[in-house]
Inverse folding.
């Protein structure tokens, strides 16, 4: 029997593990399936309490007699395993909701899990009968009773026909939060707000013509439920009028199961759910230039046949009859990680720009998506943000755009750097956009051009535009002129490479190498293969990554002086190339001013602080002959810069309030 060391938690959870169990994600991790408990409701899916007593328990457990052995775990490992158990409990509760069989306990689940329809369901949820049997046998009777109670409640909620379908659907859908790393269920209030923006006359015309409404990336049928609610409860249409016009493309097999379950609750036509492909598959359809083939995708989806039978390999003939998707709505996939390593976790391919364009290509009239706002000013590696801005500028059909700087006001416990927005596009729209900026619950609405005069980016308020106009005069030149791109000296920041080419100890003729996390190591001069002139000069080093743009009000990382014969890894970028230390110190002070960091914030839409974010920072003379006295304090230099660019009192106060001291 394993012994508990002093100060270590007893391994009270050992009995429920089987091979493969520890490979699953932890509860509430980005990878896990999570349920958002609704406090105060008898049917809440709260599984935390059932685990709390396990954590407090100091009882010793006998080692299992079979080969499913577990070694003693550290406190950290036990906490991880506890999280994995919670994830498994969630999957059991998901099964309870999704199965058509009424279940009231673990034993009931075991009795139905191998029925035909439940076999694929349990497979999609990664449920294993052997693990459930082990849970059933090993759980404390009190905690087992509580889990059975949750199983019974969620199953009853799904199957209780005494409750009106729309009420049952609305109550059920609020139980679920996240299904996977990229499948975050859109909260009902957000779906309602977006569906509420669809013009009433447009919806009436859609119903009258029996045109179609499409959720382009369904997780649990959340937009289908919101559409059904507005059409029936608000606009007064009968069930028969709308049951065949709501379509959905799920994001995965699990999302298909959830979407189908909500369609069944509302008695919508389940043949209108895509079954042969998912939302991610859509943008894999490419043309001979290896670009997303929007026209081909649109043609495939509009085929006049059962939506559930459509495949992305279908051959569409010219002249074939088509259905009309008059409105496309949804919360599409945002990005896909290119490299899974922690050191390269920021390397992701942006997906949402393609879905945004696709939604407007599919729809004959209305399109409404909720997407990250980093496309406003960002510069994605594949230039997809730039292409999206160009597309929207050319189309000029956005009628409404809601921008949320704080993404937690939309998605709890989900950080989306750069904020989030949802928009309405209408083919009939002419004129300015209704731009709504939401700050701490307050909505600030302005009628404006999406792209303010002369800009190829989207600014979120008029003060930004006013300041930028004053700074970008006829003689404007940008700090990017002296900013070097990534990997300036040919030394990558990967830990294994840094350890190979450098030393932590100084040695004769050693040259300083600035690394991430403010670390300094030492290299020989021959390790520098690029920009030798900058290496031999004074400059400033600054991290190419900083905090979230809307929460880290410092905007950039600490700027460091780079002396003669000093270099940095590609985790930082060098700015400037000076003959003397004074100019480098002047630049360092400039980068610390609130003025320069505010100008950076206009462009910075993610943690990345690469060369492009300095495009609106005006170049200065950093010598002793400058119109700015660089010997003064940072606060005094800020005031000189405010005066130089003739900023108003309101603009000065706005900058001071927006940016933190450094």
């Amino acid at each position: 029997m394993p012994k508990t060391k002093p100060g270590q938690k007893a391994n009270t959870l050992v009995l429920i593990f089987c091979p493969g169990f520890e490979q699953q994600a932890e509860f509430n991790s980005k990878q896990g399936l999570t349920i958002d408990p609704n406090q105060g409701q008898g049917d809440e899916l709260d599984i935390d309490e059932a685990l709390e007593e396990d954590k407090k328990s100091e009882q010793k457990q006998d080692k299992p007699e079979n080969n499913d052995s577990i070694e003693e775990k550290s406190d950290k490992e036990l906490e991880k395993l506890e999280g994995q158990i919670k994830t498994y409990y969630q999957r059991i509760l998901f099964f309870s909701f999704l199965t058509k069989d009424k279940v009231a306990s673990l034993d009931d689940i075991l009795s139905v899990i191998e029925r035909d329809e439940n076999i694929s369901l349990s497979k999609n949820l990664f449920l294993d009968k052997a693990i459930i049997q082990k849970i059933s046998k090993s759980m404390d009777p009190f905690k087992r009773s509580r889990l059975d109670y949750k199983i019974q409640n969620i199953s009853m909620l799904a199957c209780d026909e005494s409750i009106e379908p729309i009420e049952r659907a609305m109550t059920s859908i609020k139980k679920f939060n996240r299904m996977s790393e990229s499948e975050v269920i859109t909260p009902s209030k957000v779906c309602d707000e977006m569906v509420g923006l669809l013009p009433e006359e447009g919806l009436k015309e859609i119903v009258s013509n029996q045109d179609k409404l499409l959720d382009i990336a369904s997780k649990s049928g959340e937009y289908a439920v919101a559409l059904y609610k507005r059409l029936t409860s608000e606009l007064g249409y009968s069930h028969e009028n709308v049951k065949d016009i709501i379509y959905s493309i799920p994001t995965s097999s699990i999302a298909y199961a959830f979407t189908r379950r909500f369609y069944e609750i509302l008695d919508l036509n389940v043949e209108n759910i895509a079954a042969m492909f998912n939302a991610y598959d859509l943008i894999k359809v490419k043309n001979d230039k290896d670009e997303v083939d929007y026209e081909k995708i649109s043609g495939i989806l509009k085929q006049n046949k059962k939506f559930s039978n459509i495949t992305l390999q279908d051959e569409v003939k010219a002249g074939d009859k088509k259905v009309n998707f008059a409105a496309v709505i949804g919360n599409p996939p945002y990005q896909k990680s290119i490299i899974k390593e922690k050191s390269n976790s920021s390397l992701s391919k942006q997906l949402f720009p393609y879905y945004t364009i696709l939604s407007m290509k599919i729809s004959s009239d209305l399109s409404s998506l909720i997407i990250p706002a980093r496309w406003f000013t960002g510069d994605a590696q594949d230039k997809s943000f730039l292409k999206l801005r160009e597309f929207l500028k050319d189309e000029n059909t956005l009628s409404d755009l809601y921008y949320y700087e704080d993404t937690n006001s939309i998605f709890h416990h989900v950080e989306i750097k750069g904020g989030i927005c949802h928009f309405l596009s209408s083919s009939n729209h002419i004129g300015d956009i209704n731009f709504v900026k939401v700050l701490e619950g307050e909505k600030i609405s302005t009628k404006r051009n999406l792209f303010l005069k002369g800009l190829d980016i989207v600014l979120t308020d008029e003060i930004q535009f006013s300041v930028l106009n004053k700074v970008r005069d006829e003689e404007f030149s940008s700090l990017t002129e002296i900013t070097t791109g990534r990997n300036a000296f040919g030394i990558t920041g990967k830990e294994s490479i840094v350890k190979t080419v450098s030393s932590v100890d100084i040695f004769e003729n050693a040259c300083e190498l600035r690394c991430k996390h403010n670390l300094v190591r030492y290299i020989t001069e021959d390790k520098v293969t690029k920009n030798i002139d900058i290496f031999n000069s004074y400059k400033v080093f600054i991290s190419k990554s900083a905090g979230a743009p809307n929460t880290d009000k410092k905007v950039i990382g600490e700027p460091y002086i780079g002396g003669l014969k000093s270099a940095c890894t590609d985790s930082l970028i060098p700015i400037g190339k000076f003959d003397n230390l004074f100019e480098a110190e002047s630049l360092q002070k400039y980068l610390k001013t609130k003025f320069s960091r505010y100008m950076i914030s206009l462009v910075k839409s993610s943690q990345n602080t690469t060369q492009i974010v300095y495009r609106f920072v005006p170049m200065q003379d950093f010598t002793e002959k400058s119109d700015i006295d660089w010997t003064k304090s940072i606060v005094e230099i800020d005031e000189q810069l405010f005066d130089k660019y003739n900023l108003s009192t309101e603009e000065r106060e706005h900058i001071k309030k927006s940016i933190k001291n450094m």
